[in-house]
Specification:
single chain; 97 residues; alpha+beta; Alpha-Beta Plaits; four-stranded antiparallel sheet; 5 helices
């Protein structure tokens, strides 16, 4: 199952920036586990987006755990909008990632 996560900063960027490296390190652990496919900031920089791949049947509780371990969430700097996604056009190429 694929998941799109949109992060929206809850604080001005200057308050978010000191935590960016810890956030990126956390995302690195998700990437190493095969969960994170791609991520990056939005433009203009008021948040970011993640594309995740989790096992089929993954419940919202597990997605909440992924969200809740992000330093941005722990420090109340960003909120997530988590959207399970069922791609069709191009899914075969996405599955190769």
């Amino acid at each position: 199952m694929y998941v799109i996560a949109i992060l929206r900063y809850r604080e001005p960027l200057e308050k978010v920036l000191p935590t960016v490296e810890r956030h990126r390190a956390y995302l690195g652990t998700l990437r190493d586990r095969g969960i994170l496919l791609v991520s990056g900031p939005l433009d203009p920089r008021y948040g970011g987006a993640l594309l995740l791949r989790v096992p089929d049947g993954t419940g919202l509780e597990e997605l909440d755990r992924i969200r809740d371990q992000d330093p941005f969430v722990i420090e109340r700097l960003a909120q997530y909008e988590i959207m399970p996604w069922a791609p069709t056009n191009g899914k075969d190429k996405l599955d190769l990632l």
